[in-house]
Amino acid sequence: MKEFIAILAELEKSNRQGKTTILATVIEARGSTYRRPGARMLVTSDGYSIGTISGGCLEADVTLRSLEVMATNQPTVVTYDTTSDEDIVWGLGLGCNGLVRVLIEPITPSQADYVEFLSKCYGDRQFGVVATLVSITGLVQEQVGTRLMLLQNGNLINHFSNSLAASIVEDARTALQDKVSTLKFYLLPNGEVEVFIEVIQPPLPLIIFGAGHDAIPVARFAKELGWNVTVVDTKQAPATQNRFADADAIVLSRLENIGDYIDLGDRTVAVVMTHNYLHDLEVLKTLLPSQVCYLGILGPKSRTERLLEELHQIEINPTREQMHRLYAPIGLDIGADTPEEIALSIIAGIQAVITNRLGNQLRERKGAIHAQGNQLNPSVKKYVSV
Question: Does position 238 have pLDDT exceeding 60, yes or no?
Answer without folding.
Answer: yes
